[in-house]
Predict the structure of PNPLA domain-containing protein.
Amino acid sequence: MESKTKLKLASFDGGGIRGLSQLEVMSHIMHRLSWDHESDGSDERSLPCEHFDLIGGSGTGGLIAILFAKLRMSVEEASEELWNVIEHVYNPGILSGPQRTEALKRCMEGAMKRKGLPIDLRLTTNKPEGCAGFVVASPRIDATSTICLRTYPVRRQPTSSITVVEAVLATCATQPDFAPVTFGSGHRAREYVAVSGAANPIYEVIAEAHLLFGGDASVVSLLSLGTGHPGILRHPQDGDEVAVALHKFMWDTMYHCEQRAQEIEERIGRVGIYSRFSVNQGMQNNHVGQFDDPSWITAQTEVYLGRHESGERLDRLARNCGLVKGPITLDQLKHAGGPNYPGHVVTIVQKSLEILISNQDDDIIAKLKPKDLECESKVETCLEGTRRDILYNIRTWAADLEAPNILWLNGYPGVGKSAIASTIVEELHASNRFGSSFFFQRERASAMTPNALWCNVAYDLARRYPSIRKHIVNALIANESLPTTLNIDALFRELISEPLTKSDDIPIDKLPVIVLDALDECGGIDGWRSDHRKKLMRTLKSWSSLSRRFKLVVTSRWEDDIERLFSTTGHHPVEVISGERIDSVSSADIRTFLLHELRQLLDRYPSLPSGWPGEKETVRLINGANGIFIWIKTVIKLLESGEPQRTLRQILSNGAGSMAELYTWILHASFPKPNIDDAKDFQAVLGAIIFIKEPLDVVSLAHFLSIDGSTIDYICNGLRSVLDCGRILRIRHQSFVDFLLDSTDCPLSFLIDKERESRNLALCCLSTMKRYLRFNICDLESSYVRNQDVPNLTQQVDKCILPYLSYSSCYWASHLAETSSDNEVHDSVTYFMDHLFLFWLEVISLIKQMNIGSNMLHSLIDWLRVNQDDSLATDMQKFVAGFASVISQSTPHIYISALPFAPRCLGVSKQYLNGKRIVSGSWDKTIRVWDAETGQTILGPLQGHRDEVKSVSFSPDGKRIVSGSKDQTIRVWDAVTGQTVLDPLQGHSHWVLSVSFSPDGKRIVSGSWDKTIRVWDAETGQPVLGPLEGHSLWVNSVLFSSDGKQIVSSSCDKTIRVWDA
């Protein structure tokens, strides 16, 4: 055969009736491969032999390989044949070896006939009918050796005359359960039995592929299907020799199969082509006989396939099969994956695989990069000629391998610490010593966590330092959950400390330096009280124990908890002097910076006098700055936003010497004598900017706060000297935030009160969800398609779940936790629990944030325990904990599996299941709604029909009721108010006997005495389909299918019909 570039190989373990597990897995594999291959996702005619180039197997795995490769069977056909074999060969009680062999022979001959093939069909043909296939067996005289019985000819061996049936008998002839199989006659007669040492034929698959396709052929997928662990088997009682033998055989088989699988994983797993499927949990039976229960095996396999990691492995396999060229040749695969590989060969192969493995490592390392998080500097570097003394100090420390491995740069807000950090990063890049950097931002506190910090550092180190990279990759392979672990100490140890410690071959002039800016902003507004900050402090303490070769620069304000950390931790201190202690060097730096900024201002205002503002005013500005660069920067912004000369006179005449005085002057100048509404708007907007957990763009912020966009523009225009007014509003410097929160400095009209604004943000979240959450928010068309398989779901989510709704759904609990209870908050929370919970789950499922749901509800429970009954919230948390995995994969399963299968004792079930209310229609022409628990009427009688009501039904979201009557009309009612929401739906010429909503609530189907079926738009009442004619008598019942694509009807003509909806 000619060499190929994208081979797909498959190996099937032996395992008796547990081959059913392999076929269940193959069913899922074929569905994915067919889905990707066919535009309509159909897998009706999909055959394994059309997707794989070589299939090999042992025992019943060999039987399956023959069914697929030689007999060209589908998975469904092969399953039927294996069930037949189980019924007649494995399950009929005690049979002798010859009897069992004869039974298997009859089953295979029957399979051949059903496929229209002669029962004596030879296994090997010059032009194989399907893909290439083989089974393994052993000569009876040497059961430890292995031969391959092939469907294809090979050059090194003459073609055998063995038949398909004989090959199956040979590979399944385990001793003493089956009789040996004899091939040939006379002196050529040979007896064969099942292989005792190749129940997992993965090595044979690789060797046969090399023999068949040549060493240059490349492989995109190497599939290995096991038959599951036997679980925890109780050892048989002494004296039961048969059971003891079976016990030993099962364990030996499992051990051999899994040992081979592990060997292959270790040798080529990182290349990415190897996929192993074998039920590794769930088969924890406690008796041997349970393995003879096919339904039990199938059920355990279904559970295994339903797990998230199995789904990811299936998806990876499907992606591999779609590659144009394989990442590894059969020469490389044979050497690296062979059972007997000499060390020097592996070294050669490893070198040839370096690029391939590097690519695989890139995929592993990419998981470390924090998603959608910009942690680089947003601050300009130091102006040329400034901060020379400090930069020299830092350079000297970085080059000194005997100096402490942490440098702490500290100083007053606004002295330019971040600019110094940015300059250091730039210099480290130039000298090839840059390891990583992380610039904390207080407004991004929820995303800029210690986990994000150290994952980002590990990501950068792994990309830049190969010797560190390999240790980080190994750590991630050993523990895939590391990037998301809440155990920051373990994350730091396994991704930072240990990889650095093991990397002792980095040249001295290339040793990495890490820069961590604004430590004081970690934890956001909570500061030292934040758990994030406390955890980060512990890891910084751990860093000090590392080798002094690995340097860490930390910048921060002088805060108590940070000072306590460094007072007990070895470090190199560098203080940026300001205030009364300012020295001549710092004053000179301020002058250089001021003159530079003034020159740029003069370029914009060429009419200003030459030399403006003069030496006297320049000195006053330098003295006013007191070494604070942000003071100069803010003054320059003020001069740019107004007439420079007049603005400067106002600033200097008002004595704006300190930052607080300068900020006060800005507020009074921009918002003179604000009224109550102006003050409230200012506080709402600035409070949101300060306390919001993730920044929102201006348009979304206006929607979220229910404030006019012009109001935000007005506030921005007044604060341009301290506020970046781009798409996202950002306060230029943290000192302005401190000022707004300080009741001793900030004027009362502008003072931001944390508790008041947290309450406002919590109410905004709850109000936003009340306005926009709804059933099936993204208009999913089917309840039976996983989120990842929904076409264009990302675009639909972006369209239907706008940023302010997404934010509200993710952070309402965080803001609520910072809020005390009052009537308004209490009512909003109650409404959310009673009406919005399931719709909220839809949103966090669709935006892939299901993992935060349980913790949010824990916060709700804690808040309620202080203020009111928490029982419903507790049940909501149990519901999410129990069904989060299912809901995260398929949003509709909130309604079609999670809610129906939730324990009825849970408050969620009582609150949201349709079983809470009963709707009834009566001969008295009315409709009533009843409490299913108490039997009390809670709505009605609803009056409007002129004759007997024959059928009633709730809409899926429980908000509407549809009714059909003998008056030949259909009516739609509000299930809360009892008012009709549409004019009567008319069209039937006789009684309406049955009505029902579609699963998405958008359509209504009706069946009538007039023998027809009609479909209506539930929003407009307009007919959209029908009349559907076919029944010869009246239609008794109609119902949509669960995916809304079909309608089923039953009639008095004794027939049931299915219609395309």
Remarks:
- Residues 39-43, 231-240, 281-291, 339-357 have pLDDT under 50 and may be disordered.
- Residues 241-268 form the longest helix (28 residues).
- The first strand starts at residue 7 and ends at 12.
- The domain at 915-1060 is CATH 2.130.10.10 (Methylamine Dehydrogenase; Chain H).
